[in-house]
Design a protein that fits this description.
The chain is α+β, with helices and mostly antiparallel strands. The protein has 9 helices and 9 strands. The protein is 42% helix and 27% strand. Helix 1 packs parallel to helix 5 and helix 3 packs across helix 4. The N and C termini lie far apart (53 Å).
């Protein structure tokens, strides 16, 4: 049961990954005017990642694709993975505490697949961004999660408005209540309690999402993924040509410190990846190449 759904979801996440990687390399190729336009166009370095169970058996893996030092992207990672095996005791406890799933300790098998993306830009006027979508299965329950949120260090209200409006357009066909609910969910999830502020200007997010209708929930997850490129690319195309100062770059580095704090302290995906033994370089690809704390 659910083998068809698993393979369908896994294939979709890989397709989305391929589309995004191609679009980002096209951005690099088309950047002919403005800061860094005289540099070489960036390209993704692709590495296959593999997991092993404690007994040495195959436990899945994926592709880690990272571009460093491009014309537009200072560092961007687009990872896709499909992993499976048995949840360790700590992961079982965390899952049970969050979802209250009965039977987890008796049968702690799991399967998870998804795409995860984080982009840190060369030009501080261009916003950093995060996106992920995923499916999780156990013998006791299944659910989807993910979303995307914008993280500018120099905020432009018109950019924020475009990002949110594009996501709303993609979510509205699934019901008018989805966008406001997922926007509120993102505002809560991407809040940094110890700083008493959000890490960016929000977006959409859902977790542990299961209505019982797999096809409807998967369709919603797909449209969260489809919204990403039209929401983000126009902002980069507009901001990548702007001149910037050393003060602007300093603002960017300080903001990246905030981003790193969130990912290391609160992000569930980071915690899950490390708990289940996934490649730490792939799990931590979200961290910025340079950051600053003052």
């Amino acid at each position: 049961m659910f083998e068809t759904e698993k393979s369908t979801a896994s294939a979709w996440f890989r397709q989305l990954r391929d589309e995004i990687v191609a679009a980002f390399e096209a951005l690099e190729d088309s950047h002919h005017v403005g800061p860094f336009s005289d540099a070489a166009a960036g390209r993704f370095e692709v590495k296959e990642t593999r997991r092993q169970s404690e007994d040495g058996s195959d436990a899945g893996g994926g592709l880690m694709s990272v571009m460093r030092g491009g014309r537009v992207f200072e560092k961007v990672g687009v990872n896709v993975s499909t992993v499976y095996g048995t949840l360790g005791e700590r992961a079982q406890q965390a899952m049970a505490a969050r979802k209250g799933i009965p039977g987890m300790t008796d049968d702690p098998r799991f399967w998870a697949s998804g795409i995860s993306l984080v982009a840190h830009m060369q030009n501080p006027h261009a916003p950093a961004v995060h996106m992920n979508t995923r499916m999780f299965w156990t013998p006791h329950a299944w659910w989807f999660g993910g979303g995307s949120d914008l993280n500018p260090c120099i905020e432009y209200p018109e950019d924020t408005a475009h990002f949110h409006a594009t996501q709303k357009v993609h979510l509205d066909p699934h019901g008018p209540g989805h966008y406001p609910r997922l926007k509120e969910w993102a505002d809560e999830y991407f809040y940094i309690p110890h700083r008493k502020r959000a890490r960016g200007v929000g977006g959409i997010f859902m977790d542990d999402y299961c209505t019982g209708d797999w096809h409807a929930d998967f369709a919603l997850t797909q449209d969260i993924g489809r919204a990403f490129l039209p929401a983000f690319l126009p902002l980069v195309e507009k901001r990548r040509v702007q001149p910037f100062t050393e003060a602007d770059k300093d603002t960017q580095l300080v903001h990246r410190g905030l981003y790193a704090e969130y990912n290391l302290v609160y992000d569930r995906g980071t915690k899950f990846g490390l708990e289940t033994g996934h490649d730490p370089d792939a799990v931590l690809m979200s961290l910025p190449p340079l950051a600053k704390w003052v």
